[in-house]
Structure formats: C-alpha cells, structure tokens
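Q: Structure for this?
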Amino acid sequence: MMNPKFPLGYNRDAADYRYPSHRGLIAAAPPTLDKANHLEFRKGVIWQDGLGMCVGTFLKRCVQLWQEMNGFKSDRMISAKCAYDLGRAQAYATLDPDNAPPLQDVGTQPGLLLRGAREVGLALDSDYPDPTSAAWDPAKANRRPSLDDLVLAYNMRGLEFSNVTPGAFGFKGSIRACMVRRQPVGLSMFVDSGVMWNKGEIVGAIFNGDPDGGGHMLTVLDASRDDYAVLDNWWDYAPQGIEWGMPDGNLLELPRGTWRISWGLLERAIIQCFAVTGVPFVEKAAA
Amino acid sequence: MKALYLAVLVALVALVAGCPMPPTPPGGEECDAAYGHLADVGCEPPKPASGTWVDVCRNGRRNGVFELKCLNRASTTDALKVCGVTCTPK
C-alpha cells in the first residue's frame, strides 16, 4: 500500500521572525568530526503518518542525532507530535489560552515549533505517543497538550537552535560547518511528485508548479559529498507497507527513507535552514 | 470583574461537587488560586522535577498552550480524583 496523501506540513515563518545565526556557533567551537556525515548516528524509525507534522519529525531526528553525537543515549526519542502540537499552539500564544481555537492539522512554522520546544519543553514519545507507537491514537491528532503533558515538557525546556544562512560557499559550506561541529541541520523546501516517488536516483529537478507538491521539512544526513546531499524523510514505515524514498538493497546501501538531491538543485530549493545546537537532557520526569 | 467571575464560578462548582470552597484568588491570579484551592482541599498537585506546579501553570499560560483554566481544573471532581480527594456530587 502506498501513501496517496502528501501531508503539507511546513509553513514559512513570518518575515519578521528572527533567529540567532549559526555563525556564532562556528566561531565558538572547532570541528570535531572529519566529515559532514551523520548517517552512522541515525537510529530509530520516524514516521509522520498522514499528519502535517514534518516540522516536528525534523526536530525529532535532529534531537536524536545531537544526542548520539554528543555522548548521550538516543534510544529514548522525543515526541514529534508533542513538538508539533506545541508549535501549533504557539500560533495562539498572544490569546488567552481559554479563548484559543481548536488545533487543525495544517502544519506549522518552524519558528513557532522551535520556540515552543524552547519555552514550553519537549516530551518523550513514550509519554506522548507518535504514530509509530502502539499507544498512538489517531483520534487525538488535534488534541492540545494537557496539564500533565506540560508538567513533563517543563523538565525539558531550553532547546537551542540557529538559523543557517548561505555563506561564501553557499548553503553547502554553512551546512557542513554546522555538521562537523556535531550540530544536526534541517531544511525546508518544496517537494513535488517526482521527489515523493523517488526510488534511488539523484533528484536534479523539482517542478514548483506541481499541484500535488508542498512544503516539507527534512534533516540533512550526509553533506560530505560534492555532488549530492543525502536527506532523511518521514514517510517510509515498513510495518505499514508504506514506501517513500530509497528502498532496501540499493547499490548505495543507504538506509530506508533517505534520498539524494544534487547540491546544485538543493542550493536553490532551500527555503529555510536550521541547526539544532543544544538539546536539554531528555529524561523521563521523576514519578 | 474577572476575579468576581472566577469567584462565582468556583463557588458554583464547589457547591455542585460538594467540595470545600477554595480560597479567594490572590489578585485574581488563576494559577496561584488553583494551587491554593488544591492545598486547601488536601491535594498534592503533580510536581515536575524542577520548578513548581504553579510555575508550570504560569509557563503554560504565558506560552499560550494551557488548554484548561487552572482554577477550573482544580475545581472539578476529575481533578480532585487525580489528587486522591473524594468529592460526592450532589
């Protein structure tokens, strides 16, 4: 069974939204990885089902990579759904919470989601189930976090992130500069049908007028090669028989759910780009 | 006006649920009032490893994600059940 629906999940930040720059990170720390390749640190399945929560899944992968690369266990992953819900709720942060409208599955802006993760916190997926969890309940797709959820999230506030902007060597140089400093990088771009059903070829063109396409958010796994980058994705979940991206057994031996895109195209396609620079200690709150 | 509304609301809920009357909200701050109410009826609110329940409540409200009024939650029988306090609805 193929997933026929492309969940639109990425919405561009408001023009006046401001982030800290990744340049401060680069100035503060020397590289500690030889290559801008995080493939060996990627663990665990991440799946967004039919929800527009790609901004949450991007953060989930970045947090997992950050932990794995910085000396922490990453087997207890954060909840992408909780991050998504908090991000959507952030859209109404200026309203009295009791007067805020119900959440809708219309995606979110990375600035809102990252701010929610920083200010309100993160939850583990064991406490706030993602679609890959046996405890996942589709009926709760648009629920708001409860007080108990907020209590858990409160202990994991303080996520740090930066905006990655192109420098003298374009996005490639800036992304590499973050990745060799053990900072995972995510990016947003328009994804068309050709990308969706990609089966291993290097994507070299995207039709921006494709009515079946939409804004998507992904994590960079390998930026070390000069010809293409390897990106992670969240639509491939083998137990559900849903495939997207490279299948198993391809000649490149890349893991399922990843795909390749030429740097020439990626440099033009990136809408926004972020580095996760600091992750709070992810631990279940004391009972 | 808001404080008066809250006081009336709490009184009504308390009457219906047969719960003790909560203390007067100090300055109308709902999180403090809710915590005071829970303490008054002998509840132990959920505590995070850091901070206090009131801090969590305020943080949630400040960031626009608190779906239930603290006071309302603290005044319902469900919340009291969570805290292990028995209320007999009339």
